[in-house]
Amino acid sequence: MKKTKDYGTAWRILRLRSITDQIFIKAQRIRTLEEKKVSKVGENITSEYIGIVNYCVIAMIQLQLSDSDSHEIPYEVVEKQFEEKVSETKDLMFAKNHDYGEAWRDMRISSLTDLILMKIFRVKQIEDNEGQTLASEGVKANYQDMLNYSVFALIKLGVKS
């Protein structure tokens, strides 16, 4: 939301495929940092997971808007949509945690990264298939899962909200 204050809704120009690619870049960077443990540009795993969270919310907002909608959206509208998407995804997380018994707590952070990458490849395939699926939950569910995996990783990294 701070970047929206600074830049407005410049992200509205991004097509969903571009947002998916941005999430891929961030997840791949996390994987590289997990393996090489060296950053030449000063960013860290935490900031990349936060970026994934934000891009997932942006993707979900873009899903509900059409290309014909204005590229500039008032801050208050974006803030409301952002909070709605986060709340909806948080509710999904609680439901899944109930069903899965919070299994994520016993997972390695690197496994959460791999799950995010798997979900990205699923979304890319759905996009390549022009949204046609046989058994998929769709792209929104995958964005929600990536967001929640990122939150789990941030919790495991000790990040406070």
TrEMBL record:
Pfam families reported for this sequence: DUF1599
InterPro entries assigned: DUF1599 (IPR011630)
Domain Nucleotide modification associated, residue spans: 3-63, 96-157
Superkingdom to which the source organism belongs: Bacteria
The protein, known as: Nucleotide modification associated domain-containing protein
Species this protein is from: Pedobacter yonginense
